[in-house]
């Protein structure tokens, strides 16, 4: 319970990520596609992509991320699980129900799934915040999990990726305090979409880039009007990262305003910290904004408690949002050391093996059963499909 006179704050108390156990190096992809490697390393600011086998999906990735941060007390107190994704595995059953079961969360909890392209994790965060405002003792698990998959040799192939970010939302959080200055914008555009009948998305790449940057510009202008904030009020700014170079263009639009040379240097340094993981993983859709936050928190040496961080969330179609948050006292103690070593332990794929994995589809027999080959995964894996029902297990149960 809150002590008398103490103002309740709400935000991120714990955060972690998980990604696929296989990696494709961008230099290898460039060589196979007869492209200049700098087209990827500088043009996209990408070095590698996480690739997932058929035994890994948004459920296994999401559960693996959440497993890193939840203890027994959390599992007893969580009363809501929200999965944000645009890689849904079922048109009816929420993926959050699978997460609830795999993680052993107490039964009297609400489990739902949210969708709006790459934006929905921000909507989930807002919903979680409102719930905790009403129920201060509650804990809400928000998981953003996606697999970005495009066609072989398509324009989007070099911006694939996979991963999940799990966040525990509580009162009096240990890491990040959310504020009440959110401003969203919706516009009906067809820059990126995936109809139910297609396993890969349709993308209007240049148009999508323009929509991202124009949404940032117009929302930022209105946000400034409503809040009075200037870019100089922020110690850092995190962006949705379809690929790091686009987020970098967004930052440059914001710092084109009058800022001191030292503050500009600070913003640029924190931005570089925020893309360290994305450069090695690629696009993880709903989780990419929050992967950027985690990357910055784990790798920055200059962030301090009380610093204000700005966020730009964007989901094609399109919905975007700008908001701010403050770093909590002692946040450094809650942050793990850098995940770079974990990323270095992924199995490197040749382009031939990557393409073979890409085309390996789950094939059902007449009774709706499928038996899957063994691949390395995180703590959880998809073991097969029985009577059209997906069967998940822990690796130790093999």
Automatic annotation (TrEMBL):
Enzyme active site: 86 (proton donor/acceptor), 118 (acyl-thioester intermediate), 240 (proton donor/acceptor)
EC number, as in UniProt: 2.3.3.10
Protein's GO biological process: acetyl-CoA metabolic process
Sequence positions that bind (3S)-3-hydroxy-3-methylglutaryl-CoA: 36, 150, 249, 283
Keywords tagged on the record: Acyltransferase, Transferase
All residue ranges annotated as the Hydroxymethylglutaryl-coenzyme A synthase C-terminal domain in the record: 261-392
The protein's enzyme class: transferase
Domain Hydroxymethylglutaryl-coenzyme A synthase N-terminal: 19-172
GO terms for MF: hydroxymethylglutaryl-CoA synthase activity
Family: Belongs to the thiolase-like superfamily. HMG-CoA synthase family.
Protein name: Hydroxymethylglutaryl-CoA synthase
